[in-house]
Automatic annotation (TrEMBL):
Pfam families assigned to the protein according to its UniProt record, in alphabetical order: Epimerase (PF01370)
Sequence ranges assigned to domain NAD-dependent epimerase/dehydratase in this UniProt record: 3-222
Protein name: NAD-dependent epimerase/dehydratase family protein
InterPro entries, alphabetized: Epimerase_deHydtase, NAD(P)-bd_dom_sf, NAD(P)-dependent_oxidoreduct
Domain of life of the organism encoding this protein: Bacteria
UniProt GO molecular function: aldehyde dehydrogenase (NAD+) activity
GO cellular component: cytoplasm
Lineage: Bacteria, Bacillati, Actinomycetota, Actinomycetes, Propionibacteriales
């Protein structure tokens, strides 16, 4: 198959593109050409790279044409955020299968546990609303292409900082755990995170594209099997670094004053959702089982951080 992957040099593409090449497909990656994959892989030498700033090409009205010029049999769109983007793309396609990346955030807060793909969405932010609307267009409103959506949780892996046990991304939280096992957590530390390894996210995109009969018109969650509380995550890392945990729990106002507004916004975004999503449908329909547990995912990310 000729497969075009939009945004294929980041977290997901690092794993997805080489796996498609190894399956024998001719792969074209569309990106601006600024990023390089997180890991080296000889498979990249046979990938056709097309340099394009999507937003600029969309503004110029040429993005769809650029994709159709690649003559894809299948398209994986790893960075679609609005219905306008979805329409520009599908208007240029003609019956191919399209796999698009959504987000568990399109559901907003967790309402039942575990969250399944058919739970009513109550998006909180413009990002959430965009992803939910893209799903409506691709899976329910259009008939130009057959489409599937893949909804990852917090994408993690070696090469970048995962969401830390305080719910934001600052490396100092890891450094403190490494130094003496201490962490300062919001509230009672009982909010949940649910990381997912980028390799597992890539694999669900691949399976959705390779099984269009089963995946067409369907959304699939991809998450670690278990969620983890902030306090259990901090404890896991403290012990990983050889310390007993020393956890301090801060009232919200104190936490905000200590970490600053921009970090607190990220923490708030994570803890207000406290995700625990199910992958039963992804397992049942696509035959997927994750390679990485929650613990393996966060430890592989932390162990690869160079400057702790
Ligand atoms: N991060 C998470 O935890 C998370 C969770 C749930 C869902 N998601 C979804 O996952 C998708 C992101 O996947 P990812 O994490 O693999 O992405 P990523 O690591 O952020 O990589 C982004 C990719 O898109 C390319 N890109 C960025 N801006 C571009 C532009 N203007 N035009 C063309 N290409 C551009 C980048 O290459 P260049 O910079 O070289 O252009 C790169 O290939 C999004 O749909 C996001 O909503 C992410």
């Amino acid at each position: 198959m000729n497969i075009t992957v939009i945004g294929g040099t980041g977290h997901i593409g690092t794993y997805l593109v080489p796996s498609l090449v190894r399956d024998g497909h001719a792969v074209t990656v569309v990106s601006r050409g600024r990023r390089t994959p997180y890991t080296q892989d000889d498979a990249w030498s046979s990938v056709t790279m097309v340099a394009c700033d999507r937003e600029q090409a969309e503004a110029d009205g040429v993005f769809g044409r650029l994709i159709s010029q690649q003559e894809p049999d299948g398209v994986i769109d790893l960075r679609v955020f609005t219905t306008q983007q979805a329409h520009q793309l599908i208007d240029s396609l003609d019956g191919q299968h399209l796999v698009a990346t959504g987000s568990i955030w399109s559901w907003g807060r967790t309402s039942v546990v575990p969250m399944t793909e058919d739970v009513q969405k109550e998006p909180l932010t413009a990002y959430d609303r965009g992803k939910a609307a893209v799903e409506d267009v691709l899976l329910r409103e259009q008939s130009r292409v057959t489409a599937s959506m893949v909804h990852p949780s917090h994408i993690s892996g070696p090469g970048w900082a995962a969401v830390n046990p305080a719910g934001y991304f600052d490396l100092d939280v890891y450094r403190s755990l490494k130094r003496d096992g201490s962490a300062r957590l919001p509230l009672d530390g009982m909010a949940l995170l649910q990381h997912v390894h980028a390799a597992d996210v890539a694999e669900v995109h691949r399976l959705a594209l390779m099984n269009p009969g089963a995946s067409a018109g369907e959304a699939f969650n991809v998450v670690a099997e278990q969620s983890i509380t902030l306090r259990a995550y901090a404890t896991l890392l403290a012990r990983h670094f050889g310390h007993e945990p020393q956890l301090t729990f801060l009232p919200w106002a104190d936490f905000v004053a200590e970490v600053g507004d921009s970090n607190a916004v990220m923490t708030h975004d994570h803890i207000t959702r406290s995700p625990h999503f199910s992958m039963e449908k992804t397992r049942r329909i696509l035959g997927f089982s994750p390679r990485y547990s929650e613990e393996e995912t966060v430890l592989s990310a932390v162990d690869a951080l160079a400057d702790l």
